[in-house]
Design a protein that fits this description.
alpha+beta, 5-stranded antiparallel sheet, about 25% strand
Length: about 140
Amino acid sequence: MPDTARPAFWRIFLPHTTAAVPIARALIRSALTDIEAAADSDTAELLTAELVANAVEHTGGDHPIELVVELLETGCQVEVHDRDPAPVGGLDSRVPAPSPSPDSLDEHGRGLLLIRTLSAASGYRATEHGKAVWFTLRPAC
């Protein structure tokens, strides 16, 4: 008999500090195991860490950051919610990537490039309290 009680999504609040990044990495791996997602957990872990690090670095305040993992028929979707309504430039996968590419010596700018390159789709949307930045992953083969 199939397990119909398996959750379709997983949600947790993270502190608005750099400590959120390693917590998020562990949580995404655990969430994908819990919901038996077929998506590549290494890629999900890397991209989730990038989104959480961006939320910590580029948003103010001490409101928690929300991490949401949803199992989809076509893979999984990961969202990071923060309180800053400002759009995320260069993330929407339907829009051509901004030029030029990040400088190889620059410490910033590679995270969004990784998300755009390694995810099936990515973007952001306004929420009642700020925004949600997201990516989707197809099932791993």
